Amino acid sequence: MNPKRNSIIVFVAFFIAAIFNTANAQNVTFEETGSFYEHIESLNKENIKWGGLKVPENWDKPEARKIQLAVSVLRNKAGNENAEAVVFIAGGPGEKSVENLWSWLDHPLRETKDVVLFDIRGTGLSKPRLCKDLGEEFFKILAKDQSSAEDEVQKLAAVLDCKESLIDRGIDIEAYNSASIAKDIHALKDALSYKKWHVYGVSYGTYMSQVYASMFPQDITSLILDSSISDINEYYEKNTSNYMQSLSKVFAACENDADCNASYPNIEAMYYDVIADLKENPLTVPVSKDFLESGEFTFNSEDFKIAIQQALYNKQLVEVLPLLINEFKNRNETVLGNLIPSFSSMLAMDFGMYYCVSCNETIPNNSVKDFEKDAAKYSKLAGGLAFYKSDFKICDAWKGAAADSLLVQHNLSNLKEASYPVLVFAGGFDPITPAANGSAIVKKFKNGYKVEASTYGHVPSISAIGDEVVTSFVNDPSKAPEASVFESDASIAMVQGITTNKGVANMGTALSQLDPLLLFPIALAIGLMISFIIAHGIRLAKQQKMQLSDKVIRIMNIVTSTLGVITFVGLTFALLDTSGTNMFALAFGLPERYDFLFMLMIAFVVVLAISTLYFFASMKKLKDRSILFSVIFSNLLIASYFLYWEVFPF
User: 622: closest CA among 543, 555, 533?
Assistant: First the structure.
């Protein structure tokens, strides 16, 4: 390295930054506000600074239109007013940060560091927000029983409607790109009075972070890049290979696991069989109308491929992939409907911003011919992922006659001169930014360290282990992290031996919401049933004189209540136990070891029906009718919840 050349680069960077600061300081303002979530009282106990950063929409026209970025500064718990800060840059492009602040409240970084979250321009709570409903439109399109070509036509129409609406609103779509975001971040740092900070980017946020670091190297204390884009020119072109190489690892893991291989023999062939089957016979599954007004979603082969690709993002979803493929093979409509909420989450980001950025700096630097050439390597796949391929045609239409003006190429060559340390995370199963990207990105920096999570998917740093690694690195960036830290969680436990049951997911979702309107009557009913079992069990044991009808109904109520309590408590325990191992398994049902609970449930319903009929038939002869009825009603309430949740195994 040439020290003189390095000094010149640093001087030029500072000189450019000084000019930028002087020219734009008067065009940037930060205004503190109240909480963005005033109705959530728990956040009032947190030391959070809320505000809006007003910046030029187009940094080349600083006197023109202003936009506002939503900002949340989670102050450090040590109460240090001069603490260092970590700024988080989400991916997508188009993902939001502020609405995910709950995952940061207890992050170990906050012990001594401020955590700065902001919604990048065009997303979330920032203003303007670009086409916030476009993802929902995509979901409706994917849900239809139609070809990929029809999907593409409707997707293109929705995107062009989005573009037209942006232009009608006077939005400068060319100003929404990584360079503008880099300038926003620099302005935010100055507005919050941080001299430098640690920059933490994930997924597409790693590319934005690199652009920011190349433009404002003096801002960086350390750089954390998780699931990196190492070469924007190959981001789309190798989409199919990245997916299939990750999926092949799942096939190998199942085949090398005796139990998994016995449950799902030749899982790779099964995967391709499902693609062929769904191409000829799409599968329509029921879905909650909370997600789709139509109440149904039709899986074709392309929907199946993208669903499997998205599952590779998460370690626990990787562990249910063989089970998922098997359920598709068996065309289990009821259970597969439970997957729709998870499937819809992939479309939750702000796609208006996604296309402003992608059609500006990503797609123009990639070739659809190279995409097709890469996809052709996998003939059984019947083409690449149509969901991604369609972006080429969309961006061609988006750019229109302005194709040349929207081509952006960022020069990142000066990153190799950076002196700050860089921590790079890579997931072994990551289907979009594979582990090889991590190796390539480390080579861009003098002080780069790679940590690979071999059994994780996308963004492994956002995990219990990852949180600790990031915190240790930020606390002492000069210390190289231990590369093998994820080996303590290096096993893959493929989920098998599941008894499918749609209602398990419904029950788990309902109980996890901790709604007092739901939990109070259940707790009251269970409490009354337990009290009756104890009190009247003792009374019967003492052989107190009572009519035969009274004795019979009490015995039946004790049996019914006992079965009801054991079943409900047992199911609750099974839910907690299973979710502790793999929460996504609940979308399918419960492990076979809990089958006895469903047998108890059947017995509970049968005895409850008999005891209810006996009560009404013998009511005139019974003493303490109100007490007996209350117990029967409590049992009926529990049975009603089982029915409502659809947990009954018939």
Answer: 555
Average of per-residue pLDDT across 536-548: 77
Sign of the Cα pseudo-torsion (239, 177, 345, 295, in order): negative
Q: Running DSSP on this structure, what letter comes out for residue 360?
A: I
* 35 plus 111 within the same structural domain: yes
> Residue ranges of the alpha helices (H) in 406-544?
435-442, 464-475, 502-512, 516-541
CB-neighbour burial class of residue 499 (10 A; exposed 0-12, middle 13-18, buried 19+)? middle
Residue with tokens 């590369």: 483
299, amino acid identity:
F
- 191 is in which domain, residue-wise? 3-133+172-234+408-479
Check residue 238 and give its pLDDT. Answer: 94
In degrees and rounded to multiples of 5, residue 188 shows phi and psi of -65, -40
For 372-401, b where at least 16 C-beta lie within 10 A, e where not — what string?
A: eebbeebeebebbbbbbbbbbbbbeebbee
| Residue 61, both tokens | 């026209």
Q: Give yes or no for a contact between 96 and 349, defined as CB atoms under 8 angstroms apart.
A: yes
Q: Does 589 fall in a domain?
A: yes
What global pTM score does this model have? Answer: 0.88
- The token pair at 95 is 């993902």
The CA distance from 615 to 628, in Å, is 8
Same domain, 611 and 550: yes
Q: What single letter denotes the amino acid at residue 573? A: F
Nearest to 192 by CA among 46, 82, 342, 318: 82
The answer to whether position 254 is within a domain reads no
Half-sphere exposure of 205 (CA within 13 A, CB side): 28
Q: Which two tokens stand for residue 115?
A: 């955590």
In angstroms, rounded to a whole number, what is the distance separating the alpha carbons of residues 340 and 342? 5
pLDDT digits (tens, 9 = 90+) for 170-188: 999 999 999 999 999 999 9
Beta partners for residue 552, in sequence order: none
Q: Say if strands 66-74 and 296-299 run parallel, antiparallel, or are unpaired.
A: unpaired
Phi and psi (nearest 5°) for 219? -85, -15
Same domain, residue pair 184 and 40: yes
User: Is there a single domain that holds both residue 471 and residue 505?
Assistant: no
The total number of structural domains that make up the chain: 2
For residue 57, the SS3 value is coil
Q: Which residue has the tokens 């060319």?
A: 174
Kindly state the tokens that stand for 282: 């799409």
**Is the CB of residue 199 less than 8 Å from the CB of residue 224?**
yes
